[in-house]
Amino acid sequence: MTPLPTAMAPGLGVFQDAFAAALMAPSPLPPSSPLIDRLIAQPGFAVYRNTVMKGCIDALQANYPSVSRLVGDEWFRAAAALHVRQHLPRQPSLVDYGDQFAAFLAAFEPARELPYLADVARLDRFWTEAHVARDEMPVTAEAVARLSESRLAGTVLSPQASARWAWFGEQPIVTIWERNRTADAADETQADDDAAEIEWQAEGVLLVRSEGVVEWTRMTRSGCAFLDVCATGATLAEAANAALEVDAQADLAGLMAQLLRAGAFSRLAFHETRPKEHRR
Amino acid sequence: MIEDRSAGVGLKPAHYEEARAAPADGLWFEVHPENYMVDGGPRLAWLEAIRSRHPLSLHGVGMSLAADAEPDATHLRRLAELVRRFEPSRVSEHLAWSAWRGAYHPDLLPFPRSAESLARICDNIDRVQTVLGRRITIENPSHYLHMVEHEFDEIGFLAELARRTGCGLLLDVNNVFVSGRNIGFAPETYLDRFPGEFVEEIHLAGHSVDPALGEALLIDSHDAPIAPAVWSLYERLIARIGPRPTLIERDDNLPSFAELLAERQQAERVLRAPTRQAA
Q: Which of A220, B41, B66, B163 sits most deeply, having the most CB atoms within 10 A of its CB?
């Protein structure tokens, strides 16, 4: 193979530093090295800039459909472009790109008049995380029913890898998210009609993937507190105490039935057999 | 096993059900492994169901072999896990870079083809082949930029990669057409010179014209049917080098599964035509 006569190329890493900077720089592009300047001057350079930006924005829009429907395509893509410049994907799989988008929206000045937007984004994010979480078999209601009352108190139920839950104390985030997640994206007028009917109240939710499909169920504040404690590896007795602290009237039997129906737990263990105890 | 005279189709989630149900007449599918780098869930379950009936090819877009850095260890491990699980007939990647200093740019970016980049890419291909325990094939990318700094032409560079690392080559005919138009060379000449002995797979896809510059700048957009000019180049190539597994690629503006199968049939007619001379 005979090398072609050429201008002297810079080192590969030097080239990549300069090319990557020009790729993501805001327009108009600042001057760079002579090589990069010759590339930037060609119309083809915009193809790379557009493809990279479009790839990131498309991935964000696919992962935040409720946010996109709430704010509309143009607003979403403009906000997403700003987010992309701050947080390029860290890895080539874009399936779960955008883990910082809710935090970005929470601090995003133009989103201030939509105070629910960041929390709606959190729920879109929950959906994605539940969708790609590892496969686990749920603990069944029958398995729990076989336990004696005394055994139950020392039981540890671990939430499914796909389980995500949150309590929103000030706004009906779940209702807003749900209507925009499941609605026909083209039906914009319906969204406005829906908004009028929403009762402005606190809400909670639990998302779990079941048989390959991400499903969700409303969750009380005490239910969310219960799950928070279960996630630490504590016993059902401790989780029940946490739930009752939040709401002394909490229906614990009803809550357990709801959680087991949703397939919220993947592992059933007993306090005395926990590895932590063996180390003593 | 993917036969030389069989054409495959790029697999998209919208077509999972039809892909699984399609007759297993040699029909194979290709996916970007990046879309399956997840811990669990329905994507993997679908791919497993389809793989149980059809051969599969993993066509990576994110290994960034032409970056002046080793392949990302996490990405490589995840690819190796998919290779173990799905036992694909072929694993391929691009002559391009995309990940740099911890940031991923979702595109296939150009670089000066120099002795330095040749050595780096050979090392990176070696590394990937060692971790996967198998050979990979490398695809010619689409070009949009003139770069006078190239020390080597693309065909010589690719052939050298194949000789030094034992990797195969994946020849994308649409990329040759698009690049020829964009940076000014005759695609026939390029294809006539391409070393057929290294070609293990061929890609066919549609392109579009730049919204502002029209025909002067073609975009490798994978959002349209394969152009007649690309079909002609493909026929010319197959007549010279003989049949090779050929993929119909479509990533955007997705048509019905039946339309993709019709393009696949068209490719198989070319693959099964009596060749003037098998190389």
A: B66
Q: Which residue has the tokens 């001379």?
A: B277
Classify residue A71 as exposed, middle or buried by CB count within 10 Å of its CB (0-12, 13-18, 19+).
buried
Q: Which of A45, A55, A213 sits opposite B145 (nearest CB)?
A: A45
Asked if B205 and B226 count as a contact pair (C-beta separation under 8 A), the reply is yes
* Residue B155 sits at the chain A interface (C-beta within 8 Å): no
* Sign, Cα dihedral of B178, B181, B182, B186: positive
Q: Which of residues 156-195 of B touch A (CB under 8 A)?
A: 156-157, 159-160, 182-183
Element (H, E) at B35: none
Chain-chain contact of A43 with B69 (C-beta, under 8 angstroms): no
Give the Å distances, CA to CA, from B201 to A104, B31, B260. Answer: 43, 14, 18
pLDDT of residue A271: 79
Q: Which amino acid is at A108?
A: F
Mean pLDDT score across all residues of chain B: 96
How far is it, in rounded angstroms, from Cα B207 to Cα B201? 19
Helices and strands counted in chain B (H then E): 9, 12
**Tokens standing for residue A45:** 């350079």
Judged by DSSP in three states, B243 sits in: coil
User: Any alpha helices (H) in chain B, and if so which ranges?
Assistant: 16-21, 42-51, 73-86, 115-132, 154-165, 173-183, 187-193, 228-241, 257-272
**Which residue(s) pair with B165 in the sheet?**
none
Cis peptide before B71 (omega within 30 of 0): no
ipTM of the complex: 0.95
Give pTM, 2 decimals.
0.93
Largest CA distance in chain B: 50
pLDDT digits (tens, 9 = 90+) for A103-141: 999 999 999 999 999 999 999 999 999 999 999 999 999
Residues of A in contact with B44 (CB under 8 A): 135
CB-based contact A176:A70 (threshold 8 Å): yes
